[in-house]
Structures are given as C-alpha cells and as structure tokens.
Amino acid sequence: MSAPPPSTRVDAGRLWAGGLATAAVAALTAVAGIVIARGVLHVPVLAPRGDGIWGDASTAAYALWAGAGALVATALLQVLAMTTPRYGRFFGWLMALSTAIATAVPLGLATGTASRLATCVLNLVIGIAITTTLSAVGRSAIRRRY
C-alpha cells in the first residue's frame, strides 16, 4: 500500500503579513522609480515633466496599483498553494508572464521613447520585487505535510 500524498499547510497570517509587506515594498519601489526617473534622469514617467519630481496624483495611483498587484499576487499564491501541485513553479511562471506583459504594455503608449522605456524598466523592477519577495514569503508560510 502506498503512502497518502502530502498535503499543504498554509499559515495564512504569516502569508498575508508578508503580502502586506510586499505591497509596501512594491508601492515604495514605484515611488522610488518615479523619483529617480523624473528627478535624476529627467525623464517624464506617467506625467509631463512640468509636474515635477513627485509628479501629480498619478504617482500615488501608480504606487497604489503596485501595492494592489502585490496583494493580488498574494491571493494567487495562497490559492495555488492550497490547490495545485508544485504551486511554486506555477506561481513563478504566472508572475514572470504577468511581469512581461506589464513591461511590454508601455511600449504601445503614445509618448516619447525615453518615457516608454523608463516605464518599462519601472514595471519590470516592480514585478521582480513582488515575485522574489512573495516567493520567499511562500517558502516560510507554506509547508508540505507528510
């Protein structure tokens, strides 16, 4: 007789605490990227250069969307961990593809080349930050029981 398959135990409190921390990292990454692009490189990201280093409301909205993306990714990680074998591999692929899409979308915007490239790089860095941070959170908050 074979042993029953292992099950997954999700420490939801630990997972969501890590997810909230990841959301804060993603939001601050967005703000830091915008400050660097506008203030140091003088490249308009999300708003015309005349809006200054901090930009307008779009800077806050961009940060909020980055944080929201991290929370959605946390929910995805929890669902995958509870329902899918080798959830980490699927999570990595889904995040890599989502990051690739977010990185490519600005290329189609009707703005200057420097602005499009800066936004692409910013989206890539945010996606990498969310993916790597949540992958580490998942390793500590989700355990296989044998």
Automatic annotation (TrEMBL):
The chain crosses the membrane at residues 15-41, 61-83, 90-110, 116-137. It comes from the Bacteria. Keywords: Membrane, Transmembrane, Transmembrane helix. Coiled coil: none annotated. This is SPW repeat-containing protein. It comes from Amycolatopsis magusensis. The lineage of its organism: Bacteria, Bacillati, Actinomycetota, Actinomycetes, Pseudonocardiales.
